[in-house]
Each structure stands twice: as C-alpha cells, then as structure tokens.
Amino acid sequence: MKEKKKNLLKYAGEISSPVIKQDDIKKWESDAVKSVNDHFAQRFNEIKNEYSKLIDEFKWNDLVYKSNYSFKPIQGKTYHLYQKDDEKKSLFLSIIGPDEWDMLYIGSFNLMSNNKWEKINE
Amino acid sequence: MSKYIKYKVKDIQLAEWGRREIQLAEAEMPGLMSLRKEFGVSKPLKGARIAGCLHMTIQTAVLIETLIELGADVTWSSCNIFSTQDHAAAAIAASGISVYAWKGMNEEEFDWCIEQTLFFGEDKKPLNMILDDGGDLTNMVLDRYPDLVNDIKGLSEETTTGVHRLYERVKNGTLPIPAINVNDSVTKSKFDNKYGCKESAVDAIRRATDVMLAGKRVVVAGYGDVGKGTAASFSGAGSIVSVTEIDPICALQASMDGYEVKKMSSLIPDSDIIITTTGNRDIITKENFLSMKDKAIVCNIGHFDNEIDMTWLNENYGHTKEEIKPQVDKYTLENGVDIIVLAEGRLVNLGCATGHPSFVMSNSFTNQTLAQIELWTNSDNYSNEVYMLPKKLDEKVAMLHLDALGVELETLNKTQSKYLGLKIEGPFKPEHYRY
Q: Does the first or last residue of chain A, that is N or C, have fewer Cβ atoms within 10 Å of its Cβ?
C-alpha cells in the first residue's frame, strides 16, 4: 500500500509539528447556505407580497373601472365605491363619502396621475 | 339623520369659470336683473328658506342669486341626473350656497341630493318654500317628509310634468300646500318651451353627432309647445319634419304649419332622427326600435326618459351598447341595425348641449321669482290649490324683457282704452286668451 504523503494530511504528522486547525468548511457551508436561503426566502416573500399587492391592485382597479359611473373622474380626487341593494348587486362610484349616507360601502379610491385607482386604507 | 354637508359638487375648482359665465348670462337675463333692482332693497323673500330642484345650469345660478338678493336662503339640487353644468354648480357652491348637483349622478345620488336640500345650515332648519321642476322635490317632501309640510307656505312648479302631478294631487285631495303653476304662464310655456327648444334641439343633435340636418327626415313626437319649437328648430335647419299627435287640435296645427302628421309606425322606417316631446310615456317602443333604419338617432326633449322605452332597449340590447362619446351610445340590434341614442333618453338639449339660452330662461325664472314672492308674502290669500300667476304679472315679465331687445311699445290713448274696455296699463288680454 502506498504510504500517504505527510504534507497532504489534514493533521500534523510529527510531534513537533504545529497544531493544524482545519477550517470548518461544513459550518461555513451550512452558514452560507442558510444565509443564501434566507436571502431567497426574503426575496421570494418580497416578490410574493409585491405580486399579491399587484394582483390586489389589479382587482381593485378592475372593480372600480367596471363599476357604474356616468361622470368623468378627476385625477387626484377621491371617489367611493358602493354596492347597490338590488338584484344585480351592482357597484357604483360616487363622490358622496361613506359617512354621508347609508349605502353598502366597499372602499375609497384616489385616481392617480397614471389613471390607476389607489385604494385608500381606512 | 345624516351629518350636515355644506355642498357637494364635482369639482369646486371650476368655480371661476362658472362665475365668468354667470356674469355673461346676467347680461342676457334682463327680467331677473330688473327684479334685483326693484326688490334688492325691500327684500320681500327675507325669512324664506327656499329648497329648489331645477336643472343646475348657469341660468339657474342667476335665478338662485336673484332669490338670495331678494332676501331668501336657498338650497339647490338638480331635477335631472345629467343636466347639471358642473362649473355652474361649483360657482354657486363657492359663493357659499348649499348646492348638491353634478352631471352624471345615479338615481340613489339624485334622491340623496334632493334630501340634502330639505334642511338648512348646521342647525338644520327645515325648508319653508319649494321651487320645483318636475315634482320630484315636491313628492319627496309630501310623501317622505310629511312632518315638514306645516312650515311650508307654498310651492312653485316649473314644468308641464310637475304641474300635471300637482293637478293629480288636487284631484286626489293630497295637495296640502298652495301651488303656483309657473309652467302655464304665457311668458313661460310659450317662450321657454317653444323658443328655447327652437334654439337648443338642433344644437344638441349637432354637438352630439355632427350629423348634417338639411334634407334629413325628422319625426317630432308631439306638437305641444315643446313640439312646436322642436319642429321649427329642425325645419329651420332644412330637415324634412313629420309630426305625431294624439290631440286633433295640435295635429291640425302641425298640419297647417306645413308638417306631415302620421302615425309613428308609418314614419319610423324612413326616419333619420326621432325626437320625443310629449310628456307621455312609451312613445318609442320595442316595435318602433325594430323598424328603424341603420344609424337612426333617437332622443327625447320631454321631461322624463320614459318617453323612449330605454328599459326594453337596455334589457335586450344593453350588451351591444357602445359609448361613442359621453351621452352618445350606439346599440346594435339583431338585424344589424345601429341605433344612436342620445343622453340615455333623457333631456337631449341638456345632456348634449347647454340647454335653453339665457334670455328665454330669464322669462321662466322671472315668473318663478314672482311666484315665490307672491306665495311667501301673500300665502294667506291662497288655499291648497294650483294657481296661475295673474295676467298682470305675466305681462310684467314680458315688459321686463322688451328694453333689452330694443322693442318700442305703443300705448293706448284714452279713446282706444275706452273703446276696448281696457285700462291703459293693462292687463291687455282676458284670462282665456290663448296667444
């Protein structure tokens, strides 16, 4: 059997040799993987949240744009979405605020300069 | 009850534009401006809390400010969901008047707006006068707020439909306050309805569609005052006008004015434009729609949208509705025919144009103001009936508009006055005279 070369050993081969402390690659590796996984998890959550926010925004915009209104909304102004108490349960947009009458209130929206309806959190 | 809201308009920033137009209109409304001069100091409407429900336009703004100049507190809503001129409403709101009106509201908002006008200021003092157009405010007060009736001294009604509702109430014994029928003052119906529509009917069609009117076949449904003005409007534009009528007198008038008078079903297939003016319901029905030619234009200049069966059209062909521009919708029928409906069947001259010119509205609104003064200052003289303004006041309204047109009026001398049995200063015609 071929003798192992001493200088290739990961521990000292002579009594007088200095202590050889091997780098803990496993730990580093495990720490690195954990850290990179944390990063990906965080980014994934960020993207997931962004995606879900986007979907949410898309749904609200779709709802507002498909609701009934016969006036031209003005950018920068707030409008309120209500549901009618009729068979169709149709939605309509109004300039009347939710505290100003007794209607089934869905939400309030600002019309942004890019014509996106931004939901105002009450 | 909900909280007090000072005003509700689409965009208060339109106020300056509205104010500039109001100033322009004032110059064209000599009747109202004369009343401001005559009564501005004595303020005969002091103490009156007038709730008004009438198209919130620039001309109405001049009426509102006249009522205020004469001492009244005023709240206002519009009597039609599309008729508000947003800059007029903004100017009125900006001057501190409680107005609840915007163009393009829905039925729920319409009721809400009227309801806001019933109570005045933070302390919510109830109205004590009604100024109405079409009877929606009157109906809301009498049917839903009957407790408010005791404080109300009277109401003045602007239009045929509202007056009809009032006479129905008298017949049924459900009119609890005196009313003045402003509509049938000669200087109202013979001027606003006729000369107003004569100017604005064609204006609305042109603004909405840019269609060439000369040579086009137009059906005018109804030949009352509105129908007469509307027919004259299209006739003046070179259209070939036909009329439908139920009343033999009006039918004969139309015929002798040179219009063909036929049944709607005979006229529809060849017509380019069909306009209703009747004040009645179901004038354009399913059968009529189905026999229209391609790109026929359908609209209404009567008070309500039920003259055209929009319910049937929307229920059956609502899915084909395409908005070409605001107040101009195209429906496509099964046979491939496109129908252009203006202002969703509501008042086309208000939805698609700017309504009647200021001058003619000055006639109507001077009558309204005189009716309000009469009911507020002499309410004890009136019982719960529908009254007309006295002939003398009708003549006064006309008189207040003559100078602006440079009219020179002859005066009876004593011999002539004696010969006719009339006072030199009038009234000049008996009540039954039809003009």
A: N
